[in-house]
Design brief:
Elements: E1 10-12, H1 19-25, H2 30-36, E2 50-52, H3 53-67, H4 72-78, H5 87-94, H6 98-108, E3 116-122, E4 126-133, H7 141-160, E5 168-170, H8 180-186, E6 189-191, E7 198-202, H9 215-230, H10 236-248, H11 255-261, H12 266-275, H13 280-298, H14 303-309, H15 315-326, H16 330-337
Helix pairs in contact: 4-7, 5-6, 5-9, 10-13, 14-15
């Protein structure tokens, strides 16, 4: 498929500043690993330093290859703190209640991380707070998802206190040979081979007032976040792909719905996409291809389940589409990856 128009996503070093300490705890020299991944240790001293998302994901791959620790992302997440998310983490702390804080996370996480996005689904009983990678060329997807699930738990405990506990952890990854690190850490039911990455918890926690709520500081930080957003200069294609990822596994994607989210008429969106030498259908298929690659490489989910997740009527339609995208069937592609 044509991959033009992909914006080079960046990520604040933030939680990755804990990589040197994690490597040291496992008994490995840090500098050679960073050098092989194209970094210097000093680049990870400032949490506000931005690096390419793909390059950062390659560093995680190198850490796993050298240490042989396949739950490296979990260890990294155990050292993480919400403040490492920058202004988003500070907004979380002073929000009036948990629901408002999580809405901030949903709206402004891209100020910290342009290669992924927060997801949020709730009903009367259960809420799902998750994270999904939207950078299609990322490495170490499993490690990034491990890190993000631990960080979400850390965020929720920071907001709600030690009495908070997840009811289930949903992970878009194959069931590991060694499940003990996951069971010991999460102390909860874990569903591997899921079509999403999310932490499930009782919705009653959403209305909890926050201990350090500060309305004046919250408003000030929101203004600061908006100023940072204004300087991001995110292009239409990037915004579109973010929205398509957001709705694909949940609400379904229609031109009308996405155009409304972008604040424009369908004809206007089509006209602007034509000027970018693409179409709504092309962009939707690019996102479906990206998500299907994650599901095929990271899980053992049957093709029928993957096709249902992507909105296809049956696996035959999905197989036909995937072969059009890659010149391979999903099974051939998955076998080659493994």
């Amino acid at each position: 498929m044509n991959k033009k128009n992909y914006r080079k996503a960046t990520v604040r070093v933030g939680p990755l500043t804990n990589i040197p300490a994690t490597l040291w705890s496992l008994g490995y020299e840090r500098a050679p690993i960073f050098k092989k991944a194209g970094f210097q240790l000093k680049q990870f001293e400032n949490p506000d330093q931005k690096i390419p998302f793909i390059k950062g994901s390659k560093l995680l791959t190198e850490c796993v290859c050298v240490t042989g620790c396949h739950h490296f992302g979990l260890l990294l997440g155990m050292r993480s703190h919400p403040s490492e998310l920058g202004i988003v983490g500070y907004l979380l702390r002073v929000a009036p209640d948990v629901r408002t804080g999580l809405q901030v996370l949903l709206n402004y996480l891209d100020l910290h991380d342009e290669g992924g996005m927060a997801t949020f689904e709730t009903n009367d009983d259960i809420t799902l707070l998750g994270y999904t990678i939207i950078e299609p060329r990322a490495y170490a997807v499993d490690q990034i998802y491990d890190l993000s699930m631990v960080m979400i738990c850390n965020i929720m405990r920071g907001l709600c206190g030690e009495k908070w506990a997840p009811t289930e952890i949903l992970m878009m990854k194959k069931s590991p040979n060694n499940k003990k690190p996951y069971k010991d850490l999460f102390q909860s039911r874990i569903r591997f081979n899921s079509d999403t990455n999310a932490v499930a918890f009782p919705s009653k926690w959403l209305d909890l007032p926050l201990e350090y709520s500060d309305s004046f500081l919250f408003k000030h930080l929101l203004n600061e976040a908006e100023a940072l957003r204004a300087n991001q200069d995110i292009d239409l294609i990037t915004k579109l792909r973010q929205l398509l990822h957001q709705c694909l596994l949940h609400d379904g994607c229609s031109l009308q719905h996405i155009a409304e989210q972008l604040g424009m008429h369908e004809r206007t969106l089509n006209r602007r996409l034509k000027a970018e030498d693409t179409t709504f259908r092309d962009e939707l298929e690019r996102v479906k291809f990206s998500v299907s690659q994650q599901l095929l490489s990271s899980t053992n989910a049957p093709l029928e389940d993957i096709s249902n997740s992507l909105g296809y009527a049956d696996s035959t339609a999905f197989i036909r589409a995937f072969k059009r995208w890659s010149d391979q069937t999903p099974s051939q592609w998955r076998n080659a990856k493994q």
